[in-house]
């Protein structure tokens, strides 16, 4: 018989979505009171806030002084595709994928840009590609942290310092929670909606001096839409990297990002942000170790994300189900948790193996993760009991 007794303790905040993610602890609409609403983003107040967002990003993330940072349209996707459309084609490119968003960059390179010399390397969910096969004298496009697979790069050791190609890194679920070796990365992108719990639709684009040199020396064969153009007359448009955005940003979202950055500094900066995510992951690791019916999609601990934590049901009774039945089982667990108001939006991504995905980024309180885990056990027991009754 299933243990259907509901846990006594509930998470104070049931928001474990992987994007948009939970707001920082203590957030309220009062944090937006100073937003430059009804003002031009080109006015002094608007430009000042945009520049502040760039400066604070550099300071907290430790971005080198000679790297450029820009606020760009269309969230992380816009930033990645801006880099791909502007930089690729000068030499061959290797595109790496170990989850759905990386697979999207493969599609961009092979089917949309239709690059003559493009290779793809793909790994199953829960793993990463064999970097020994990757040629860094070519350009390389990859995600640092697979948001939909719960897998991250362990470090940048496999990227050579003397590479000839550019490295284009989608770091949207890694920035502010994991160390990024900027000396190994020529393009870094992320969005505000992830680790800092900001709002969507704005992306961040970080360029190394090597990436800038490519922009100024190479002109792609295809036309570039206005929102992708980073150069004019063969020179970098420096204003874009001083807060003079390509199109109109939401000053409300900018204010929210500034609030999240200020909170980050108050709690101790990047080290504290990483520690909070690590603590959240540790809670889940302890629970999984004590409950063998639950498993990490990323079996290798060194590759396990501390932000987008992906779990599968390892119980043989569930494993014997058909893929559709397994998906229904996992959705049933997530639905029970949502109905109880203890966890919202924690179902696995639609293209990922059936299971759960719990966001553990810095804005999530460790106490809430601790309160959540017994509820997952309760929902699992209820679902398994319904399986037995159906049989």
Could you characterize the architecture of this molecule?
The strands form 4 sheets. This protein has a 7-stranded mixed beta sheet, sandwiched between helices. Strands 12-13-14 form a 3-stranded antiparallel beta sheet. The model has no long low-confidence stretch (mean pLDDT 97). It is built from 9 helices and 14 strands. Helix 6 packs parallel to helix 9. By secondary structure, the chain is of the alpha/beta class.
**Structural category:** alpha/beta
Indicate the percent of residues in helices: 25-40%
Query: Helical region count?
Result: 9
Tell me the quaternary state: single chain
Strand content: 5-15%
Strand line-up across the major sheet? 1-9-8-7-4-2-3
Radius of gyration: 22 Å
Largest sheet: 7 strands, mixed
Task: For this entry, give a set of tags.
7-stranded mixed sheet; 9 helices; alpha/beta; globular; 3-stranded antiparallel sheet
